[in-house]
Write a structure and sequence with these properties.
alpha/beta, 6-stranded mixed beta sheet, about 45% helix, about 15% strand, globular
Length: about 270
Amino acid sequence: MTDEISVERHGPVAIVAIERPERRNAVDGATALALYDAFRALDQDETVSISILTGRGPHFCAGADLKALAAGSGANPVRRTGDFGPMGPTRLRTTKPVIAAIEGFAVAGGLELAFWADLRVAASDAVFGVFCRRFGVPLIDGGTIRLPRLIGHSRAMDMILTGRAVTAEEALSFGLVNRLAKPGAALTAAMDLALQIAGFPQTCLRHDRQSALDQWSLDWEPALVHETELGLDTLRSGEAVAGAQRFTSGQGKHGQFDGSATELALSARPR
């Protein structure tokens, strides 16, 4: 834990929280570096299967710390290459899933942090938007790339050009948000989802996730070859055979799960 962020572990789930509620969790240079270092370390931690990114207090993240930018000290560094983004981990490709648990504002660079994650669980009163449009601050953490891929070009251009506020309900309707929770309950809902995902066979899950991410930069035939290679790696791991044996013993038929993920959630959920 640092002054800028905290990291908590609950079974196979790690929770990374931005600890700047007095700034609506705006990210300055030191916070960006702390976030980047935290996610790099968690990706190498074999005891962690999935991470949750959230903000302390009533807001997820209001973006880059414009007070630091205006003061000319402590501003977010911008590099042309490498896996360190101005908001921290936004150019980092993790091998494990990340869920964003969103309360309040997820705007500007905070929006970019949110859709850097694989999934987004938001409180029903959360607000999204490219609010930096008002101040001439660019999307520079993958926003102009990830947003059109997530919600389609037309909707993305609406958000990028107008900088308007988008409600959680609207964000859910066009796929920016994956799950809604009651106000104040986004982290709890994200934890339940994370523990369900952590309960699945992890080699297969990570390989399928990798293929889905890699295909964006591949043509159709190379993408199929890559998917097959990852699938063969999964088969060689023994996970699929073990899963087939569980199925033939009666587990998981008719869409039923064996309850292991639920039991894991009950035992590891923060109290």
